[in-house]
């Protein structure tokens, strides 16, 4: 389980996350909405452990361990992984090498790559000249190799064409154990109980909701997390009234 309590974070001298409380239980996936610059990426980067995001208050617990000041590599080993919005290009490191590094064990690289239609990229340098959609598939391949328990997705649909969006959406559903249909042998309830993977997905468009069964939606507005409810309801509210009106219920309550 991921538990964030009263988290406050500073970046470049500015407080960008204010008193964040968030709980993602085993098997749950949440989506995060919010206007540009509201702090969504910062929240994911803080959970992943990037040191420039300075925690000035509160704490982050993962699997019962206080990871608030734990280095990134240790968080990754504990089971946290992230798909970045704009990951760096790494010259001299091929996709097949980074897949091996992410996996930290023997994995069938070609088979994994086939799942995201990425076999022909295996010998190219990481993200070198990749299109927006190719970067997303590269990120998914690395997560498939790492197979973490908590996955953070920063705008996985952005830059992906309409044909590939199904591939991206279905792969995320698979990673988060959200793709399984009930069968005669396994009821829906039993399937839900058996899920262990946790996810937090940033989306502006909500396309991902067509592929991944999401448990909860949240809105981050000016560094404050609010409106924890049905994600489609949030999307409708933002579409009709805008972010400011959508979060007003929470602002008024405070
Ligand atoms: N290195 C930095 N120095 C100063 N300010 C920064 C730095 N990086 C990010 N910020 C600022 O922090 C704020 C939050 O940025 P963040 O990327 O978390 O927003 P976001 O909600 O993910 O936005 P978007 O939807 O546009 O991706 C923004 O105002 C941004 O300009």
UniProtKB/TrEMBL annotation:
<dbReference type="GO" id="GO:0016887">
    <property type="term" value="F:ATP hydrolysis activity"/>
</dbReference>
<keyword id="KW-0547">Nucleotide-binding</keyword>
<dbReference type="InterPro" id="IPR027417">
    <property type="entry name" value="P-loop_NTPase"/>
</dbReference>
<comment type="similarity">
    <text>Belongs to the ABC transporter superfamily. Ycf16 family.</text>
</comment>
<dbReference type="GO" id="GO:0005524">
    <property type="term" value="F:ATP binding"/>
</dbReference>
<dbReference type="InterPro" id="IPR010230">
    <property type="entry name" value="FeS-cluster_ATPase_SufC"/>
</dbReference>
<dbReference type="InterPro" id="IPR003439">
    <property type="entry name" value="ABC_transporter-like_ATP-bd"/>
</dbReference>
<protein>
    <submittedName>
        <fullName>Iron-regulated ABC transporter ATPase subunit SufC</fullName>
    </submittedName>
</protein>
<dbReference type="Pfam" id="PF00005">
    <property type="entry name" value="ABC_tran"/>
</dbReference>
<keyword id="KW-0067">ATP-binding</keyword>
<feature type="domain" description="ABC transporter">
    <location>
        <begin position="2"/>
        <end position="247"/>
    </location>
</feature>
């Amino acid at each position: 389980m991921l538990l964030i309590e009263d988290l406050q974070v500073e970046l470049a001298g500015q407080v960008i996350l204010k008193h964040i409380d968030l709980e993602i239980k085993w098997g749950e996936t949440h989506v995060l909405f919010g206007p540009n610059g509201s702090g969504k990426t910062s929240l994911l980067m803080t959970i992943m452990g990037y040191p420039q995001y300075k925690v000035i208050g509160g704490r982050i617990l993962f699997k019962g361990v206080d990871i608030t000041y734990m280095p990134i590599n240790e968080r990754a080993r504990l089971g946290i992984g992230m798909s970045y919005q704009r990951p760096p290009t790494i010259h001299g490191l091929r996709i097949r090498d980074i897949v091996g590094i992410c996996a930290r064990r023997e994995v069938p690289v070609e088979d994994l790559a086939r799942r995201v239609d990425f076999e022909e990229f295996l010998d190219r340098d990481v993200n070198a000249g990749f299109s927006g959609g190719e970067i997303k598939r590269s990120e998914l391949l690395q997560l498939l190799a790492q197979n973490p328990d908590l996955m953070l997705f920063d705008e996985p649909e952005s830059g992906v064409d309409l044909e590939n969006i199904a591939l991206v959406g279905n792969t995320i559903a698979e990673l988060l154990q959200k793709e399984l249909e009930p069968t005669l042998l396994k009821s829906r309830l039993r399937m839900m109980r058996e899920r262990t993977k946790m996810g937090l997905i940033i989306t502006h468009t909500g396309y991902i909701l067509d592929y991944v069964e999401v448990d909860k939606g949240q809105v981050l507005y000016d560094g404050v997390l609010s409106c924890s409810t049905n994600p489609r309801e949030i999307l409708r509210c933002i579409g009709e009234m805008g972010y400011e009106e959508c979060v007003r219920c929470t602002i008024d309550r405070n």
